[in-house]
Amino acid sequence: MAYPQLKYLRRLLRVDDKLYLVITFMLLLSFHSGLGEPCKFDLDHPCICKTQNFQLNLESFMKARGGADLQATGENDQYIYYVQPCNRKLSTQLQSCITVNPDLVSCQVDANTKQQAYGLGVLHKYEVTRDQDNFILTNSFIQQSDMINRTLHLTVKCSDQDGEFTYQGSNKPPSPVIYKFTLATRHICAGAKNEGGLSPGSVMVIIFFVLLIVYILGGLLFQKFIRKAQGVEIIPNYVFWKDFPFLVKDGFVFTFQCCKGSSGYDKI
């Protein structure tokens, strides 16, 4: 039995294999460029996070706090959250957190009993991204008791405040559950240091346009001098680009008809 939707899949996939690989590769690169960079912490300076492009210095802030964990309450005071933004263990030595994992850098604890705890991040797993003057630290931990991935999302902002740490809320399961916090402090204003160079996203954009230019120029030369093409036929993969708008249309039709059920195929 022939399924009508296969016809649309064939049309959507009717593209030169090499071009398909290039498009897939660029999509993967663009996805990766949105990820954070691993924090590189020096053993002697665990509160200085370095990447290839910038530096986040929390030493003066944490020194002013005596190294104490950040604390905030959430969910109508049902939970207390402990966060250690440096690459070291929680200074809050709650047995419930230690039982979950002794290397936690963030822990969610039941405010009433202090017995139930969940990990939000662990040592050596911090990643950081920079958004103008703000920094976003992320970490994650999979709780063995329920196999839920809980993720710490800490935004560090330059502010005239000494250090205000607040809980911003979380999404609901299924996994991963992202817990968002904000740290506003004047200490980060002096501790934020740009190391120069291009960000990973900028590098990916440059690579994309270089490959695009190589594809267009190389394709034009190949069509003109190797295949002896004339007119619009010298455009690389001319048939594909000519049909591209119709392929996009077919993709939308296919998607919407699938959502409506098999009865919609007759209309296609």
From TrEMBL:
Q: One GO cellular component from the entry?
A: Golgi membrane
- Segments passing through the bilayer: 203-222
Q: Which domain of life is it from?
A: Eukaryota
N-terminal signal peptide:
none
Coiled-coil zones = none
Q: Which Gene3D superfamilies does the record associate with it?
A: Mannose-6-phosphate receptor binding domain (2.70.130.10)
The UniProt keyword set, sorted, is: Glycoprotein, Membrane, Transmembrane, Transmembrane helix
Q: Which PANTHER family does the protein's record reference? A: MANNOSE 6-PHOSPHATE RECEPTOR-LIKE PROTEIN 1 (PTHR15071:SF0), MANNOSE-6-PHOSPHATE RECEPTOR FAMILY MEMBER (PTHR15071)
Entry protein name: Cation-dependent mannose-6-phosphate receptor
